[in-house]
Amino acid sequence: MTKTVYILNGPNLNLLGKRQPEIYGHDTLADVEAVCAELGEKIGLKTRLLQSNWEGQIIDWIHEARDAAQGIIINPAALTHTSVAVLDALNTFDGPVLEVHISNVHQRESFRHHSYVSQRADGVIAGFGVEGYALALRRMGRLLA
Ligand code: DQA
C-alpha cells in the first residue's frame, strides 16, 4: 500500500511568494505542492498538501491524519510559537512528524526561537527556503521505509 504524507501549513502561508519575499522567497505554495508531489511519486509516497489560516482546521487535519496518513510534515507558521493545542494534536499521531520552517527562525526575533511543535517533532528543518519541504519529504521516505 502506498504511504501517505500530510504536508500541513499554518497561517499566512497561502500568501507564500507574495508575502515578505525577502524572507520567504518567490515560490508559491502551489510550487511547493508540485515539487512535493513529483518527489513523492519518485520515492513512493503520496502527498497531500493543505493550508489553513485557522488553528482548529490544522488540528482537525492532524486528527484526520491519524487514520489517513503515515507521516506528517508541518510548517505551523506562527502557531509554532503559540499553540499548545497543535502540539497536543500532534501528540495523538503515532507516525513520524517533521517540522519545517522556510526561514531560519533562530536568526530572527526572539519570540520565534521557541517552538511548541519541536517537543513532538522527530526532526526540524529551518532556513533552507522552500527546499526544506523536499528535504523533509526525503527524510520521511527513509523514516517510513
Ligand atoms: C515560518 C516562521 C514563523 O515564525 C512565521 O510565523 C511563519 C513562517 C517559516 O516558515 O519560516 O509564518 O514558519
TrEMBL record:
<keyword id="KW-0057">Aromatic amino acid biosynthesis</keyword>
<comment type="pathway">
    <text>Metabolic intermediate biosynthesis; chorismate biosynthesis; chorismate from D-erythrose 4-phosphate and phosphoenolpyruvate: step 3/7.</text>
</comment>
<feature type="binding site">
    <location>
        <position position="88"/>
    </location>
    <ligand>
        <name>substrate</name>
    </ligand>
</feature>
<dbReference type="InterPro" id="IPR001874">
    <property type="entry name" value="DHquinase_II"/>
</dbReference>
<dbReference type="GO" id="GO:0008652">
    <property type="term" value="P:amino acid biosynthetic process"/>
</dbReference>
<dbReference type="GO" id="GO:0009423">
    <property type="term" value="P:chorismate biosynthetic process"/>
</dbReference>
<feature type="binding site">
    <location>
        <position position="81"/>
    </location>
    <ligand>
        <name>substrate</name>
    </ligand>
</feature>
<feature type="binding site">
    <location>
        <position position="112"/>
    </location>
    <ligand>
        <name>substrate</name>
    </ligand>
</feature>
<feature type="site" description="Transition state stabilizer">
    <location>
        <position position="19"/>
    </location>
</feature>
<dbReference type="GO" id="GO:0009073">
    <property type="term" value="P:aromatic amino acid family biosynthetic process"/>
</dbReference>
<comment type="subunit">
    <text>Homododecamer.</text>
</comment>
<feature type="binding site">
    <location>
        <begin position="102"/>
        <end position="103"/>
    </location>
    <ligand>
        <name>substrate</name>
    </ligand>
</feature>
<comment type="function">
    <text>Catalyzes a trans-dehydration via an enolate intermediate.</text>
</comment>
<keyword id="KW-0456">Lyase</keyword>
<feature type="active site" description="Proton donor">
    <location>
        <position position="101"/>
    </location>
</feature>
<dbReference type="InterPro" id="IPR036441">
    <property type="entry name" value="DHquinase_II_sf"/>
</dbReference>
<dbReference type="InterPro" id="IPR018509">
    <property type="entry name" value="DHquinase_II_CS"/>
</dbReference>
<feature type="active site" description="Proton acceptor">
    <location>
        <position position="24"/>
    </location>
</feature>
<dbReference type="Pfam" id="PF01220">
    <property type="entry name" value="DHquinase_II"/>
</dbReference>
<dbReference type="GO" id="GO:0003855">
    <property type="term" value="F:3-dehydroquinate dehydratase activity"/>
</dbReference>
<feature type="binding site">
    <location>
        <position position="75"/>
    </location>
    <ligand>
        <name>substrate</name>
    </ligand>
</feature>
<dbReference type="GO" id="GO:0019631">
    <property type="term" value="P:quinate catabolic process"/>
</dbReference>
<protein>
    <recommendedName>
        <fullName>3-dehydroquinate dehydratase</fullName>
        <ecNumber>4.2.1.10</ecNumber>
    </recommendedName>
</protein>
<comment type="similarity">
    <text>Belongs to the type-II 3-dehydroquinase family.</text>
</comment>
<keyword id="KW-0028">Amino-acid biosynthesis</keyword>
